[in-house]
Amino acid sequence: MxxxxxxxxxxxxxxxxxRLKRKIKKLEDDLYFKNNxxxxxxxxxxxxxxxxxxxxxAKSTIWLYVKKEKLKAIKNxxxxxxxxxxxxxxxxxxxxxxxxNLHKEKxxxxxxxxxxxxxxxxxxxxxxx
Length: 129
Hints:
Strand order of the largest sheet: 1-3-2
Distance between the termini: 88 Å
Largest sheet: 3 strands, antiparallel
């Protein structure tokens, strides 16, 4: 009886060790990629989904620009198309779309600053005595 209990205990501990090793491996990989991956704003090639995140434009509009030869698409494989980041930035800046802050969350401070600009409110409210 004691041998069987010990064997079960050893098996359980072995499973726990394997699970912990997998977790450690995953954490090491996450840490490596977090420290060594280049941020998105330093990419030289962009995919359509990256362009959509950066500029206020729809996917169909991007393909329309490609069709009209305003944007040059680079075909990497049958199902992968990329665009030169500098060309994309230059194009959208020239048509007035520029870099968008659509995905930047507005804080209370920026909302108040917008209201001040729109309504031309004074920056400081006068004190009432």
